[in-house]
Structures are given as C-alpha cells and as structure tokens.
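Following up on my earlier thread - several people asked me to post the actual chain instead of describing it. Fair enough. Here it is, all 243 residues.
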Amino acid sequence: GTLDEILNNEERLRYNLPIVYNKLADWQMNLFDDPEGARQSLEFIRKNYPESKAAQLASQRLASMDSFDEASSEASDIDETYQQLAAESAEKDQLKGPLDIPTASEEDTLLINETAFAQCINRVEEHPDSITNREELAALYVSHANEPVLAIQQYEYLLGMPGATEKQQVAWLNKVADIQVKSGGTHEEARATLQRVIDINPEGAGATRAQSRIMHLSIEIRAANKKNAPLKLERHEEDLGLM
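Reply from S.P.:
Thanks for posting it. Predicted structure:
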C-alpha cells in the first residue's frame, strides 16, 4: 500500500517518518483511545530526530498530554504544522509522492471531531468551573456544531463566575460580540455586548477598544455578512447570446 511505499523509500524516509508517527499518534489518541501508544509514537520522533522541528513539536504535544487530556482535532495547530513540514519537504523533492499519508478519510475526520466534542462536553460536566474546558466547548459549538447560542452560553457562564478578572471579562465579551457578528446577530445585540465591556471599566483600555469597535460595527457586520453570503453567479448578456 501507500504506507509501505513511504516506509520503503529510503530517500524520502527521513522526513516522511515523523509525519507518519505524528498521524499515528492522532489515531491512537482520537480513534483508539490509546494515550500511552500516542506517547510512544511521539517519543519515537523525539528520540530519532533530536534537535529537529519535528522533535520540538513532538515535545510540545507530550507536554500538553501531561498537563491535560489532549482532545485534538485534525485542525490543530500542531497537525497543521506537520502538514506544512510535509509540504516543504515535497517542494525540496523532485519526486512527487504521498507525503501526507496516512491521511484520515472524511469519516475518520468526522469521528475525530465528534469524539473531541463529546470528550469536551464530558469534561465540562465533570469540571463545570474549568475556564479552559468552557472556552474549548464554546469554540467547538461555533466551529463544529454551528450552535452560536450555545457557544455564547459558555461565555455567559464564565462571566458569571466569581473572581473573573477584568481582562478575562473583556476578552469573553469580545468573543461573544465576535460570535454575534459572524453568526448573523443584529447590530443592537453586538453593540449591547460591547457596551458591557465599557461598563466594566469606562477608563480602561478594553473600554477604549470597545468604543472604537462600536463606531465601526456596521462595517464589521457587513464584512461578515458578505463572507457568509452564498456566491451569486452573475449572468451577462453575452452569456445568454443576447449581444
């Protein structure tokens, strides 16, 4: 198979192998629930490619696994970086080949995303006051579930927690405004959210930025609507033979 081609091609093996083992770690974490196997795959990269970019990234993943349960998706920054490494390797090699193999199928990707989503919901249920978990769930509600209202609920929960700093509250309210703008919310809704930022500390830097954002809110909403609008194909007279 294609994987055999990669592993048997010694010329390409030096930069293919870290990508293969990184993808294997993805599968072990997300499909097979085997964190120990994933650790071994990442340790292989770190030991066999010392002082390389791949080893550095493997070390980062291992560190993140030590600090909390990793629930990564195909679109994680680290995975994208590995894909970039693969692309760079391909450019340097005249022989074109299956650099980013093994590639997860659409079904694999869907399963990984669903798994990450379910794991995140479970973590929020177990640790409802975890800021990291709530923020991650909010992001997944936007990107994966397309549920902006539920995403906003996560930030509102965080905003209601005692002890939240001014900086955190400002950041969360701006996230809420982002969601409102990008999901088709009204000008009034987004403006009210940004006004809440100002009300926290009218003299603060966050209030100044919120005031500026309110002034340009119409432009921001128009840009978001334009980006979300379906592409309309213009039909010219010459296309219809009416010249």
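Confidence is low (pLDDT under 50) at residues 68-75, 93-102. That should answer part of your original question.
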